[in-house]
């Protein structure tokens, strides 16, 4: 049976192109195309079995943000992907939409007819959120044997978080609950293109006790500070003049990802931190597994992964669990406490 998709967009062209893309598939069909948020909300209340929504943010009568607030208040749990642009206002609205429960976002092409096929692939990629069996699987052999190392010298602990689809919302359930005196710096790789991570960092900074910023080249890591990898840049940690500093790279994306969490974890092998707390949250794919596996062979690591029930997409944390790397598998609302329990405060 086909899954039902609703489109909410004030552009007739967007509604038509999206409907054509979706209705050509064997798995999905457009059940309704609404012209604004009010029309969409009426349809949500009227129709049964809506499995997925594509939602424009800026519309007359009722915009996407207002609709998402109502859906959150009414506990309507339909997965939503919002449309956005990289304009400063739009990127901030996109981050707000993600914090309100949208599972992902999609940039509208400047010319949808010229860029139709690339846009089509991105639309179908987002719909694959509804197909959990498409997640990569691994053959689980012997659990990874972590070699516990003891060092008399070291720089303390560091927290390194990786997330993807559903990550912005998950980060809003973790970062604001970390104390200002957390005894470790926090690195975050969230799969996101350039132009959006600054808005994500700014929003989290406004609601958190710890300072949160978009990582910049040469930033020195400080305890109780959160550094979010800049969209479109790989993040690595290097040592310069006795400090651990952030290095941003523009080398090629890996599997379409830049930033790539594996690079962050692998770079920590050469760090002076004696204990690294690796946290893997919701996301599609397996980014993080290889890097944490490599890191665990050289450093003391403690791995916290999000559980299936609270994940928007149980891909990245599933790969960590199936590879035998997880020390704790916990629900999203317990991630911050798990970090604090292991990291401590100063």
Describe the structure.
The model is unreliable at 133-143 (pLDDT under 50). This protein has a seven-stranded parallel sheet with strand order 8-9-7-6-12-13-14, sandwiched between helices. Helices cover 30% and strands 22% of the residues. The relative contact order is 0.12. Strand 13 (300-306), helix 10 and strand 14 (328-330) form a beta-alpha-beta unit. With 346 residues, the chain is α/β, with parallel strands linked by helices.
Shape: elongated
Largest sheet: 7 strands, parallel
The parts where pLDDT drops under 50 for at least 5 residues are 133-143
- Span of the ends, CA to CA: 55 Å
> What's the average pLDDT?
91
Oligomer: single chain
The tally of beta strands, per DSSP, is 14
Helix content: 25-40%
Q: List the helices and strands in order.
A: EHEHEHEHEHEHEHEEEEHEHEHEH
Number of helices: 11
Q: Structural class per helix/strand content?
A: alpha/beta
Radius of gyration: 21 Å
Strand order within the widest beta sheet:
8-9-7-6-12-13-14
How much β-strand is present in the residues? 15-25%
Q: What can be said about this structure in brief?
A:
30% of the residues lie in helices and 22% in strands. The protein has eleven helices and 14 strands.
């Amino acid at each position: 049976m086909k899954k039902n998709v609703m489109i909410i967009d004030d552009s007739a062209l967007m509604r038509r192109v999206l409907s054509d893309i979706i209705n050509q598939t064997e798995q999905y069909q457009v059940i309704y195309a609404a012209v604004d948020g009010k029309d969409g909300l009426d349809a949500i209340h009227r129709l049964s079995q809506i499995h997925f929504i594509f939602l424009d943010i800026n519309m007359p009568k009722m915009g996407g943000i207002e609709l998402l607030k109502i859906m959150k208040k009414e506990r309507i749990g339909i997965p939503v992907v919002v449309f956005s642009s990289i304009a400063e206002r739009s990127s901030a609205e996109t981050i707000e939409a993600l914090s309100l429960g949208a599972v992902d976002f999609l940039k509208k092409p400047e010319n949808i007819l010229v860029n139709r096929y690339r846009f089509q692939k991105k639309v179908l990629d987002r719909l694959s959120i509804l197909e959990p069996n498409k997640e990569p699987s691994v053959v689980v052999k012997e659990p990874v044997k972590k070699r516990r190392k003891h060092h008399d010298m070291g720089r303390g602990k560091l927290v390194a978080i990786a997330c993807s689809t559903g990550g912005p919302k998950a980060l809003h359930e973790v970062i604001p609950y970390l104390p200002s005196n957390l005894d470790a710096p926090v690195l975050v790789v969230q799969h996101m293109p350039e132009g959006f991570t600054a808005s994500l960092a700014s929003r989290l900074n406004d609601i958190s006790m710890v300072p949160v910023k978009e990582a910049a080249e040469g930033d020195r890591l400080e305890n109780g500070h959160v550094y979010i990898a800049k969209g479109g840049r790989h993040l690595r940690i290097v040592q310069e003049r006795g400090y651990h500093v952030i290095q941003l790279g523009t080398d090629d994306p890996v599997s379409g990802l830049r930033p790539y969490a594996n690079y962050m974890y692998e770079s920590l092998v050469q760090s002076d931190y004696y204990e690294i707390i690796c946290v893997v949250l919701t996301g599609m794919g397996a980014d993080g597994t290889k890097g944490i596996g490599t890191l665990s062979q050289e450093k003391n690591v403690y791995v916290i992964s999000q559980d299936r029930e609270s994940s928007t997409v149980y891909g990245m944390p599933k790969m960590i669990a199936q590879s035998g790397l997880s020390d704790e598998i916990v629900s999203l609302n317990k991630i911050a406490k798990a970090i604090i329990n292991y990291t401590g405060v100063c």
